[in-house]
Amino acid sequence: MTIRVVLADDHPLIRAGLRLLIANTEDIVVVGEAGTGTKAVQLAKDTRPDVIVMDIRMPDMDGIEATRQAVAGTEAPRVLVLTMFDEDEHVYAALRAGASGFLIKDMALEETITAIRVIAAGQSLTSPSVTRRLIANFVSRPQRASKPREVKGITQREREVLGLVGLGMSNNEIATRLNISAATAKAHVARLFTKLDARDRVHLVIIAYEAGLVTPSHPTS
What is the pTM of this model? Predict the structure, then answer.
């Protein structure tokens, strides 16, 4: 299966570098390029890409708003945010807008190719420096709702699993914590994706925090 990608960045040299790198792959093809957020959204509608590599700071419309609009429709692409900035405000805003991954531009281009494949496969990904802070600091953000989000339609066991996903645990770690098999843990997480209409694991983390299932008194290591 060929992964269809749109490159959205206001720096032509960055787009050119990614385009040249992608040209040497057999499973990824660039179907469009955008230098503004508005054009990125239009390309998402016109070309139906699997992944948009999205810069945050662009003229006309920033990458966060462009992400929000691009993922709003049916058959929405997955978005990999690529930026020079790794401040928390950008991380949270991008993930809330619907991004599935967040990488810093100083990472090797080859790592971006790997990230595109991970995102296209339905998984979530953030750079290591972002991952370390994401879960531990999420509750301190001013955007957090004053009242916990109400999570309906899940079982008590699924609620437990959601809380552990919110702590950043893998399926194997969840299985160990709950004394269940890894396959059972994976099945619980899969049901959470469906019941909560979650895009990916990062989205489940956000839901867990907004539901109050993870708090500062239960920090991630």
Answer: 0.68
Strand partners, 52: 6, 79
Structure tokens at 43: 């390309």
DSSP calls for the chain: -PEEEEEE-S-HHHHHHHHHHHHT-SSEEEEEEESSHHHHHHHHHHH--SEEEE-SS-SSS-HHHHHHHHTSSTTPPEEEEEES---HHHHHHHHHHT-SEEEETTS-HHHHHHHHHHHHTT--EE-HHHHHHHHHHGGGSTTS-SSPPP--S--HHHHHHHHHHHTT--HHHHHHHHT--HHHHHHHHHHHHHHTT-SSHHHHHHHHHHTTSS-TTS---
- Neighbouring CB atoms inside 10 A of 123's CB total 15
- For Cα atoms 100, 138, 10, give the angle at the middle one, nearest 5 degrees: 45
Environment class of 74 (CB within 10 Å of its CB; exposed 0-12, middle 13-18, buried 19+): exposed
Mean of the per-residue pLDDT values for the chain? Answer: 82
Predicted local distance difference test score (pLDDT) of residue 108: 60
- Enumerate the β-bridge partners of residue 34: 8
pLDDT at 61: 93
Q: Are 145 and 210 in contact (CB under 8 A)?
A: yes
Q: Residue 64: is its pLDDT beyond 80?
A: yes
Judge whether residue 4 has pLDDT over 70: yes
User: Residue 160: is its pLDDT beyond 90?
Assistant: yes
